[in-house]
Amino acid sequence: MDKPYITCLMECSVDGRLDRERWSALYDSNHDEVSTIYYNTLNSLHPDGNLIGLNTARAFFSIPEFKIKAKSKTLSHSAMFRGIRDEVKITAIFDFDGTLAYRSNKIFNSNIIAILGKKLVSDEYLRYLRTHEISYTFAGEDGTDLHAALKSLHDDFGMHQLVLEGGGTLNGSFLKEGLIDQLVVVIYPGLDGLSGIKSIFEYQGKPGDLPAKGQRLELIDCQSMGGGVVKLSYKIHKDITNNMIFTRAEGIACKVVKK
Q: What is the DSSP letter of 100?
């Protein structure tokens, strides 16, 4: 399947937790630079855009909820729609049943593409997106067909390099489907420690599910960024068959980046 190359980029505590408000204080208080390192890393990847989930969009962009005011004539729930796109990156937001009322077709100078579920989204919401020149496409009938969404982003919108910046739940779904090609983690030198706090990957499955099965991490870069912050980069190999030959990277040492 033609799909964009997906890099999952996350910042987290040493124990993999995502809520920055809960992280323990820095030992070296002069180096609170994890966000700067994160965004410098993001820019260095030169992506066509990024992928985020509904909760991430709500938390970071304060987008109001969409409320259906009236019924409308039936619109096509199978055809994607391409709104006005400037020469900027895109942010694809997985919002399966159409709950976000965007104020414009941009967030932080990035054009929006809404990823929807064909049977979940209302006609009124599709009309709202079209009126605001906001692009959209579909992730299957119920919004869970990530393969279909990525194929559309590749074929219909020309996306070749995308950065996945979940939500742990969205990241977990991508992991389970084997859609992540590279993992980059910026690790803050602190801890959370409480059970049940969201982590990098949160696949919503059964106790016996193994969402990472058949996927192996090859360490391709390790950098100490100063102040205790570490950046790890992994290539993800997928075991296509049981006879797949896997070459393990050995002897990769962390290199210190001088400030």
A: B
Encoded tokens for 20 = 């920055």
- Helices and strands, number each (H, E), in the chain: 5, 11
Distance CA 259, CA 256 (A): 9
| pLDDT value, residue 79 | 83
Q: CA-to-CA distance for 136 and 92, rounded, in angstroms? A: 9
When pLDDT is averaged across residues 116-129 and rounded to a whole number, the result is 93
Query: In residues, how long is the chain?
Result: 259
For tokens 């400030």, name the residue: 259
B/e letters for 166-193, b = 16+ CB within 10 Å, e = fewer, are bbbbbbbbbbbebbbbbbbbbbbbbebe
User: For residue 94, what pLDDT band results from cuts at 50, 70 and 90?
Assistant: very high
47-84 confidence digits (pLDDT tens) = 999 999 998 898 888 899 998 765 555 666 778 999 88
- The vertex-48 CA angle with 160 and 32, nearest 5°, equals 130
Residues 121 and 127: their CA atoms lie apart, in Å, by: 11
**Exposure b/e, 138-159, CB count within 10 A at least 16 = b:** bbbeebebbebbbbbbbeebeb
The DSSP output letter for 142 is: S
Q: Summarize the confidence of residues 179-188 as an average pLDDT.
A: 97
β strands within the chain, DSSP E: 5-12, 49-53, 90-94, 106-107, 110-116, 135-138, 161-164, 182-187, 215-226, 229-238, 255-256
Give the range among 68-82, 98-112, 122-136 with minimum mean pLDDT. 68-82
Peptide bond into 167 cis (omega under 30): yes
Contact 100, 63 (CB under 8 A): yes
